[in-house]
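During data preparation, we tokenized the protein backbone, and the record follows.
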Amino acid sequence: MPEFVYTARTLAGEDVAGTITAATKRESLGMLAEQSLFPLHVENADKPKPKWQRKKRITAQVLASTLTQMADLLQNGVPLMRALEILADQATHPGLGKVLADVRDQVGEGASLEEAFASHRDVFNELAISMVRAGAEGAFLEDALKRTADFMELQEELKSRFVGAMFYPGFLAAVGSIVTIVLIVFFVPKFAELFTMLERSGRGLPLITVVLLGLSDVLARYGLVLAAVAAGLVYWLRRAVATGRGRLILDRAKLKIPMAGNIFLGYAVSRFCRILGTLLRNGVPILRALEISSESTGNRVLAQAILKSAENISAGETLSRPLAECGVIPRPVMAMITVAEESNTLDDVLVNIADGIDRKLGRQLDMMVRMVEPLMLLVMGMVIMFVLLGLLLPIFEMSTMMA
């Protein structure tokens, strides 16, 4: 039986410390209460002290596989505590094993599975927490876990597809930027003396050459400072985005990006429709389903519009009318929701809408990548042409005058 180190306060107001043997932390708290001690701090004595180490990221595929296994165990009659213990012991990822062990301990101490998941938000996202909450409330936890795993795999597939599609344009941009910076910082200064001689001789330099020399001088003198400022700006932006207001501003800006904005919106609407349809199919009340699905969209703009629509529904409106008035969800989607609501097939239609949006997003993504690649080549070519013209135009003018 494990031992727990405790610090407690007596009825007289004195602090005492010691160890106590109990099966769980919850049991140790009860034993201290029986001794008229008010526990201030209780910790497992066998728990190793945390050491700094680089955490290995828990991928969506690993987490989805774990949730599927948990659903299978529960569906086959294995108790939740035993299922968590099995998964923690057999976890291939050491970090996930520790997380599942902590979830098991919290559940054993009386916490709900949703609360235990919520204490590890770096591992379980809002989608997983919301679906587990709905599954526990609606008595379809096994199905909720499987649906969450499916959503995660679909999300990761779309993300991998996007990253893979943008790899080549990103590679072109990175190589082109490096080549341009090397030319401007190291190659252009070698012509500085020649250009100075041309200016002293009374021949002016072309404007493009003057701009190129000024840019080269700025980068050579303040390049490190500019890099540090850029790094600081990126750090500040990441901190700002972590706040609620910053996330809202970012999500609003993402929807206004040409070409990509429609993809971001479609992705959020697809998640909303799929999750809402799944919850309604399992008997979750409409207001509760809207609350959960809004938290899982991944976009604060759409989430706020959905929650605002839910207020109108509670006042007696149908779902389609307030959603249409928010102006975020595309009209074709709203038309299908309106018809489905009238025919009482909303749950099935919402899932079909999500499938259709996902197929459309795949085609839009392929088209965007095909447009980005030549555009990136054109931009890189123009930048390199700018450098070459800035270097060669004075030489051409000098050779013409000498002839």
User: Anything to note?
Assistant: The longest strand covers residues 3-9.
